[in-house]
Amino acid sequence: MLKLTYFDIDGARGEPARIALSIAGVPFEDDRVPFQDWQRRKPETPFGALPVLEADGKVLAQSNTINRYVGKLANLYPSDPWQAALCDEAMDAVEDIGTQIESTFNLPDDEKKRRREALVAGPISLFLSRLEQRLLANGGKYFADDRLTVADLKVFLWIRHLKSGNLDHVPTDLIDRVAPKLVAHFNRIKEDPGVKAYYARRRSGS
Ligand SMILES: N[C@@H](CCC(=O)N[C@@H](CS)C(=O)NCC(=O)O)C(=O)O
Q1: What pLDDT score was predicted for residue 14?
Q2: Is the CB of 154 within 6 Å of ligand 1?
Q3: Of 36, 4, 38, residue with least CA distance to 22
Q4: What secondary structure letter does DSSP report for 168?
Q5: For the segment 97-136, what is each residue's pLDDT rounded down to a tens digit?
Q6: Mutate-to-test residue for ligand 1 from 10, 18, 38, 50, highest number of ligand atoms within 8 A of CB
Q7: CA 110, CA 47: separation in Å to the nearest integer?
Q8: pTM, to two decimals
Q9: Contact 7, 186 (CB under 8 A)
Q10: How far apart are the first and last CA of the chain?
């Protein structure tokens, strides 16, 4: 049995693998670490970070590595090498920009405002519009393989975070202005039957 360990939040780096496994009906233990337990558990992880996936007593770290592995188990990762690379490209792009945003989390308020406004004017807008271009170059519906893959889940979750209003100084309508086709992609993935079923189960607590 697989065990996926991540923080007890419905988003961010551990979430694509949870959704992918759920969509495919692959049984797994959803180990959700309360923040107060993290410092105790951190040294157990390969790189001092989450997510971590365990299979048959072996352990795997790095979110996109886990997404690829889980994507293969769930048939949500392309078998064609070029399509697989396109899937990786989108996931790595989200990591790049996500890491830049993450670096502002613990800044003092005034510095956070300055850094976030600079990110919105620069890299966040750039990554949004370039992801939109890559989506369009690959047919406009999905990032790879003309079907849902773990790349779509990862981009969807990033966009959801940007639109959530939880990131101070990041306007929630930024994406509508900068990359409207990515909004269409966001809505497509949100309405995917597997994704909808996953969140319906989360809401009902089953
Ligand atoms: N490159 C790693 C980064 C992992 C990472 O930074 N995870 C965050 C949560 S999203 C974490 O564990 N933060 C707590 C810490 O670093 O102590 C990956 O993609 O998995």
Answers
A1: 98
A2: no
A3: 4
A4: T
A5: 999 999 999 999 999 999 999 999 999 999 999 999 999 9
A6: 50
A7: 31
A8: 0.98
A9: no
A10: 19
User: Ligand 1: which atom is nearest the Cα of residue 7?
Assistant: 9
Residue whose CA is at the smallest distance from ligand 1 atom 13: 49
pLDDT of residue 9: 97
42 lines ligand 1 (CB under 6 A): yes
Residue nearest ligand 1's atom 17 by CA: 49
Protein residue with its CA nearest to atom 1 in ligand 1: 62
Tell whether ligand 1 has an atom less than 6 A from the beta carbon of residue 67: no
Question: By C-alpha distance, which of 69, 55, 129 is closest to 93?
Answer: 129
Residues 6+ apart with CB under 8 A from 190: 156, 160, 196
Cis peptide bond prior to 51, omega within 30° of 0: yes
pLDDT per position as a tens digit, 177-205: 999 999 999 999 999 999 999 999 999 98
The amino acid at 94: V
